[in-house]
Amino acid sequence: NIDWLQEIEPEPRLYINPQDASRRGIEEGDLVRVLNDRGSATLKSKLTEMIPPGAVNIDHGWWQEHFLEGHYNLLLHHVTDQKVRTPALEIERVINNPRASTHVLLFDVLVEVVKE
Q1: Sequence-distant (≥ 6) Cβ neighbours of residue 75 within 8 angstroms
Q2: Is the Cβ–Cβ distance between 72 and 41 less than 8 Å?
Q3: Which residue from 20, 40, 54, 112 has the fewest beta carbons nearer than 10 Å?
C-alpha cells in the first residue's frame, strides 16, 4: 500500500525462469496458477533469468485482493498438528486468515505452475 512501490510493480507477479516457463507454454504476462496440495494463487507471470531453473518467486507484501484468485499464504504449510515439538510454533494461530502468516513454514513450499 505504498504508492511509489505500486508505480514500480502495480500487481503481484510470479517470477519464473524462461526455461521453466517455456516448458509450460508460459510467456511474459500470461495468467498462471501456482498450486500445491494446500492451495493456489492466480497471477501474471514475469520471466527472468534472476530466478534459477526449478524455482519461482512471488514477492512478499501483497494482500489477497491484489491476486486474481487465492493468495501466496494459501500455498504455505500451516502448523496445525499439536504434536509438533518446535517451541516457537506451539502457540495458537493469531488469525485464521490467508493474510496472516502466523504458524507457517516458509521453507516447505513445493509448487507447480500451470498456464491459465
Answers
A1: 34, 35, 36, 38, 39, 40, 41, 109, 111
A2: yes
A3: 54
Phi, psi for 57 (deg, rounded to 5): -145, 140
pLDDT digits (tens), the chain, 116 positions: 788 988 999 999 999 999 999 999 999 999 999 999 889 999 999 999 999 999 999 998 888 899 999 998 888 866 555 555 555 555 555 555 655 555 555 666 899 999 99
- 69's grid cell: 484468485
Alpha carbon distance 59, 14 (integer Å): 8
**CB burial of residue 34 (10 Å; 0-12, 13-18, 19+):** buried
Q: Which pTM was predicted?
A: 0.78
Indicate if the alpha-carbon torsion angle 48, 11, 4, 2 is positive or negative: negative
